[in-house]
Amino acid sequence: MRSCSRLVRNPQHASFAKRGKRLVCNQAVSASAPPLHQSSSSSSAPSDGKTLRRLILLRHADSDQTSGVRDHDRTISETGRRQASQVAQLLKDKGWTPDLVLASNSKRTKQTLDEMCEVIEELGVVDAHYYGSLYTVAALDGQTREHICDCLLEVIDDVRNKVVMCVGHNKGWEEAASQFSGTAVKLKTASAALLQCYSASWKDVLQESAQWQLVEVLVPAV
After folding, report:
1. Where does this protein hold substrate (predicted)?
2. Residue 189, in any domain of the structure
3. Host domain of residue 89
């Protein structure tokens, strides 16, 4: 596998703290890159000036179950590499090219993104943030949506960011996709829930009361 050398990243763990039962972001590991040009949606913008905002919730690709390797350090399998390439091609074909990435800092999450860079060249220069807390919170009941929103609000820009991709783990990713859309969503490995909503700002659309439209769930053929 050829690593995408331009992918903006830092391997250090982001810190997090618990307040009661809620995880709170303290720091995102990040670096900035020039914003991408994103082609306009075929949907017409509403007359009130609200902007179409898109959210991709992607589960990491299939990973190896190697004995003696801790869960955080598991690597993606050959099947996972093919899955990541396929879902990247599906996103590219649909014009859903991310201009901001938030991800768990697990090894299999980073390798999933490396494989996707081979297909979506622009993905290699987006602003990417890796959170240790996104790895941790996905295992907890019902907290992932709120934590994703908290992390996004730390770094997102209303003007530059129109298509955001969050990459992580079940069970949290299925729960979050279901809560955002108000419908049950199943995410197999390397599957992506495509969500969209018109709003005046990301702050508005990331409120708990906001209802997103589930456009499609992309599932690799392998």
Report:
1. 108
2. yes
3. 53-64+72-218
> What is the pTM (predicted TM-score) of this model?
0.83
112: domain CATH number is 3.40.50.1240
- Over residues 102-154, the pLDDT tens digits come to 999 999 999 999 999 999 999 999 999 999 999 999 999 999 999 999 999 99
**Is residue 201 within 8 Å of 49, Cβ to Cβ?**
no
Q: Is there a domain that residue 32 lies in?
A: no
Longest dimension (CA), the chain: 57
Q: Please check whether residue 22 lies inside any domain of the structure.
A: no
The residues, ordered by sequence, that sit 6+ positions from 51 with a Cβ below 8 Å of its Cβ are: 45, 158, 162, 198, 199, 200
Cis amide leading into 110 (omega within 30): no
In a domain, 29, yes or no: no
Q: Which amino acid is at 197?
A: C
Task: Give CA–CA dist 110/106, Å, rounded.
Answer: 7
> Please, which residues have CB within 8 angstroms of residue 159's CB and are 6 or more apart in sequence?
none
**108 assigned binding-site residue:** yes
HSE of 150 in the Cβ direction (CA atoms, 13 Å)?
18
